[in-house]
Protein backbone atom coordinates (compact mmCIF):
# COMPACT_ATOMS: atom_id res chain seq x y z
CA UNK A 1 0.00 0.00 0.00
CA UNK A 2 1.49 3.36 -1.02
CA UNK A 3 0.79 6.83 0.38
CA UNK A 4 -1.75 7.60 -2.38
CA UNK A 5 -3.76 4.50 -1.46
CA UNK A 6 -3.59 5.41 2.23
CA UNK A 7 -4.72 8.97 1.43
CA UNK A 8 -7.70 7.75 -0.57
CA UNK A 9 -8.80 5.15 1.98
CA UNK A 10 -8.47 7.70 4.81
CA UNK A 11 -10.40 10.31 2.81
CA UNK A 12 -13.12 7.77 1.94
CA UNK A 13 -13.44 6.64 5.55
CA UNK A 14 -13.62 10.18 6.90
CA UNK A 15 -16.08 11.25 4.19
CA UNK A 16 -18.26 8.28 5.11
CA UNK A 17 -18.18 9.24 8.80
CA UNK A 18 -19.04 12.83 7.92
CA UNK A 19 -21.99 11.74 5.78
CA UNK A 20 -23.23 9.41 8.50
CA UNK A 21 -23.23 12.43 10.82
CA UNK A 22 -24.98 14.69 8.28
CA UNK A 23 -27.69 12.08 7.71
CA UNK A 24 -28.10 11.60 11.46
CA UNK A 25 -28.49 15.38 11.88
CA UNK A 26 -31.08 15.55 9.11
CA UNK A 27 -28.86 17.77 6.95
CA UNK A 28 -28.87 15.14 4.18
CA UNK A 29 -32.43 13.93 3.68
CA UNK A 30 -32.67 12.34 0.24
CA UNK A 31 -30.91 9.22 -1.03
CA UNK A 32 -29.73 10.99 -4.21
CA UNK A 33 -27.97 13.79 -2.31
CA UNK A 34 -26.47 11.27 0.10
CA UNK A 35 -25.14 9.16 -2.78
CA UNK A 36 -23.68 12.21 -4.53
CA UNK A 37 -21.93 13.41 -1.38
CA UNK A 38 -20.61 9.93 -0.65
CA UNK A 39 -19.35 9.53 -4.23
CA UNK A 40 -17.83 12.89 -5.23
CA UNK A 41 -14.38 13.05 -3.59
CA UNK A 42 -14.29 16.50 -1.95
CA UNK A 43 -10.65 16.13 -0.90
CA UNK A 44 -9.59 16.24 -4.56
CA UNK A 45 -11.15 19.70 -4.95
CA UNK A 46 -9.16 21.21 -2.07
CA UNK A 47 -5.69 19.69 -2.59
CA UNK A 48 -3.77 22.47 -0.83
CA UNK A 49 -5.94 22.53 2.28
CA UNK A 50 -4.60 21.03 5.48
CA UNK A 51 -5.38 17.27 5.36
CA UNK A 52 -7.92 17.35 8.20
CA UNK A 53 -9.81 20.17 6.43
CA UNK A 54 -9.84 18.33 3.10
CA UNK A 55 -11.25 15.21 4.65
CA UNK A 56 -13.67 16.35 7.34
CA UNK A 57 -15.12 19.39 5.60
CA UNK A 58 -17.09 20.66 8.57
CA UNK A 59 -15.56 24.14 8.47
CA UNK A 60 -15.08 26.59 5.61
CA UNK A 61 -11.68 26.66 3.98
CA UNK A 62 -10.15 29.51 2.04
CA UNK A 63 -6.88 30.14 0.33
CA UNK A 64 -5.55 32.86 -1.88
CA UNK A 65 -5.51 32.13 -5.58
CA UNK A 66 -2.76 33.68 -7.65
CA UNK A 67 -4.31 37.03 -6.75
CA UNK A 68 -4.93 37.94 -3.09
CA UNK A 69 -8.01 39.86 -4.26
CA UNK A 70 -9.64 36.59 -5.36
CA UNK A 71 -9.64 34.01 -2.55
CA UNK A 72 -10.96 30.51 -3.18
CA UNK A 73 -13.44 29.04 -0.73
CA UNK A 74 -14.91 25.65 0.03
CA UNK A 75 -18.19 25.75 1.91
CA UNK A 76 -18.69 23.49 4.93
CA UNK A 77 -20.43 20.21 4.07
CA UNK A 78 -23.58 20.94 6.14
CA UNK A 79 -24.14 24.08 4.01
CA UNK A 80 -23.44 22.19 0.79
CA UNK A 81 -25.92 19.48 1.81
CA UNK A 82 -28.60 22.08 2.59
CA UNK A 83 -28.04 23.82 -0.75
CA UNK A 84 -28.25 20.54 -2.69
CA UNK A 85 -31.40 19.46 -0.88
CA UNK A 86 -33.07 22.81 -1.60
CA UNK A 87 -31.94 22.82 -5.23
CA UNK A 88 -33.64 19.44 -5.82
CA UNK A 89 -31.44 18.55 -8.81
CA UNK A 90 -32.93 16.07 -11.28
CA UNK A 91 -31.25 14.05 -14.05
CA UNK A 92 -31.14 15.92 -17.34
CA UNK A 93 -31.31 19.42 -15.87
CA UNK A 94 -29.08 22.27 -16.97
CA UNK A 95 -27.53 24.21 -14.09
CA UNK A 96 -25.50 27.42 -13.98
CA UNK A 97 -23.01 27.68 -11.10
CA UNK A 98 -21.80 31.25 -10.58
CA UNK A 99 -18.49 31.54 -8.77
CA UNK A 100 -16.41 28.42 -9.26
CA UNK A 101 -14.71 28.42 -5.87
CA UNK A 102 -12.91 25.10 -5.66
CA UNK A 103 -15.23 23.41 -8.17
CA UNK A 104 -16.75 21.02 -5.61
CA UNK A 105 -20.16 22.72 -5.67
CA UNK A 106 -20.32 22.14 -9.43
CA UNK A 107 -19.15 18.55 -9.10
CA UNK A 108 -22.07 17.51 -6.92
CA UNK A 109 -24.84 18.83 -9.21
CA UNK A 110 -22.81 17.43 -12.11
CA UNK A 111 -23.11 14.01 -10.54
CA UNK A 112 -26.83 14.50 -9.95
CA UNK A 113 -27.74 15.73 -13.46
CA UNK A 114 -25.95 12.75 -14.94
CA UNK A 115 -24.95 12.18 -18.54
CA UNK A 116 -28.10 13.80 -19.91
CA UNK A 117 -27.69 17.05 -17.95
CA UNK A 118 -25.10 19.80 -17.88
CA UNK A 119 -23.52 22.12 -15.31
CA UNK A 120 -21.99 25.35 -16.62
CA UNK A 121 -19.61 27.16 -14.30
CA UNK A 122 -18.76 30.84 -14.50
CA UNK A 123 -16.02 32.38 -12.40
CA UNK A 124 -15.03 36.00 -11.99
CA UNK A 125 -11.35 35.27 -12.26
CA UNK A 126 -9.22 33.41 -14.78
CA UNK A 127 -6.75 32.31 -12.08
CA UNK A 128 -9.58 30.89 -9.99
CA UNK A 129 -10.92 28.98 -12.96
CA UNK A 130 -7.56 27.49 -13.88
CA UNK A 131 -6.89 26.40 -10.30
CA UNK A 132 -10.25 24.81 -9.50
CA UNK A 133 -11.47 23.27 -12.70
Descriptive notes:
- By secondary structure, this protein is an alpha+beta fold.
- It has one domain (3-132): Rossmann fold (3-Layer(aba) Sandwich), CATH 3.40.50.150.
- It is 50% helix and 14% strand.
- It contains 6 helices and 4 strands.
- The protein has helices spanning 3-25, 31-39, 51-56, 77-87, 104-113, 126-132, and strands at 61-64, 71-74, 94-98, 118-122.
- A two-stranded antiparallel sheet has the order 1-2. Strands 3-4 form a two-stranded parallel sheet.
- The longest helix is centred in the first third of the chain and has 23 residues, at 3-25.
- The radius of gyration is 15 Å and the shape is globular.
- Residues 59-71 have low confidence and may be disordered.
Which key features would you list for this structure?
Rossmann fold; two-stranded antiparallel sheet; two-stranded parallel ribbon; 6 helices
CATH architectural group: 3-Layer(aba) Sandwich
Count of alpha/pi helices: 6
Number of strands: 4
Return residue spans where pLDDT drops below 50 for at least 5 consecutive residues: 59-71
What is the CATH H-level superfamily? Answer: Vaccinia Virus protein VP39
Average pLDDT confidence is 76
CATH class: Alpha Beta
Task: Fill in the CATH topology.
Answer: Rossmann fold
Q: What's the Cα radius of gyration?
A: 15 Å
Separation of the first and last Cα atoms: 29 Å
Number of domains: 1
Amino acid sequence: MNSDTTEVSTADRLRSLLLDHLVEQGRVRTPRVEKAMRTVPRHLFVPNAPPWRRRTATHPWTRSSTSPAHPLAARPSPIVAMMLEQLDVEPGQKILELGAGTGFNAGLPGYLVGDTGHVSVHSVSGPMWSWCC
